[in-house]
């Protein structure tokens, strides 16, 4: 039996062994929409009503900040914000607007132990990355401070990054970027307070500088609000010699369309 035939046989065998257990799991825990709880056909699937409420971020948008435009202004157009105050990262991409069901998914992943949602969310992020994941050398999650990680048990950004790496086949570097300063919660802080809060909060491990030097990296987080956190993290990556940093988030706050 050739190598290919043997791999196909093993795959079928695993599938046959796993399928009954999946069917039993569906009986004990029927698939339900993570947004509203109604029955759906498969786990991690949304019902039509919740799906229709999602505002995916599609072109046209600012090439740097990914801010959605209300109408097409032509290829390569930048927003006024990107021109007046260019970010330290090279570009930002996000899957959806942070409201409604999208906000609920973020909160469920972050605070309600719904790590099972991460594969679905990472799939949307890969699609929204505009080819940047395919072009990158590595994927790096925005880290939590070890004290907060101990309290929360897991890092939601790392969960998204892990599944993004699995889907894309790109290397995941979960221990390269460190959160060296314990910061206050960003929720409720203004833009200036957020910047002050995370200033100097990140650093690249002195033993892992080679992971980012001269490389194109994708920095992963769950939500983009003012950009203070990912800007501080990008500064640490650039200081270590990263050639290009794309920020990729599941959701982003959008005030009004330009």
TrEMBL record:
It comes from the Bacteria. Pfam families: DZR_2, Pribosyltran. InterPro entries: ComF/GntX_DNA_util-trans, DZR_2, PRTase-like, PRTase_dom. Signal peptide: none annotated. Residues 25-72 form the Double zinc ribbon domain. Coiled coil: none annotated. Residues 158-251 form the Phosphoribosyltransferase domain. Belongs to the ComF/GntX family. This is ComF family protein. It comes from Rhizobium lusitanum. The lineage of its organism: Bacteria, Pseudomonadati, Pseudomonadota, Alphaproteobacteria, Hyphomicrobiales.
């Amino acid at each position: 039996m050739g190598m290919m035939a043997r791999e196909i046989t093993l795959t079928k065998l695993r599938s046959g062994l796993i399928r009954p257990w999946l069917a039993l799991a569906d009986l004990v825990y029927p698939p339900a929409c993570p947004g509203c709880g109604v029955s759906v056909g498969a786990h991690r699937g949304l019902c039509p009503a919740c799906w229709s409420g999602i505002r995916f971020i599609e072109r046209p948008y600012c090439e740097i900040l990914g801010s959605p435009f209300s109408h097409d202004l032509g290829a390569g157009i930048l927003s006024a914000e990107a021109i007046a105050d260019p970010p330290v990262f090279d570009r930002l991409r996000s899957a959806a607007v942070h409201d409604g069901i999208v906000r609920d998914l973020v909160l469920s992943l972050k605070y309600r132990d719904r790590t099972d949602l991460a594969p679905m969310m990472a799939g949307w992020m890969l699609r929204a990355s505009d080819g940047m994941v395919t072009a990158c050398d590595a994927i790096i999650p925005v880290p939590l401070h070890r004290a907060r990680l101990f309290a929360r048990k897991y890092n939601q950004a790392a969960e998204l990054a892990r599944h993004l790496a699995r889907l894309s086949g790109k290397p995941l570097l979960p221990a390269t970027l460190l959160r060296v300063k314990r910061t206050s919660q960003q929720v409720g802080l203004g833009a200036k307070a957020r910047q002050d809060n995370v200033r100097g909060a990140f650093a690249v491990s002195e033993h892992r500088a080679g992971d980012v030097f001269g490389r194109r990296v994708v920095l992963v987080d769950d939500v983009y609000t003012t950009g203070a956190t990912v800007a501080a993290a990008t500064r640490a990556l650039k200081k270590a010699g990263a050639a290009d940093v794309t920020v990729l988030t599941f959701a982003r706050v959008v005030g009004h369309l330009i």
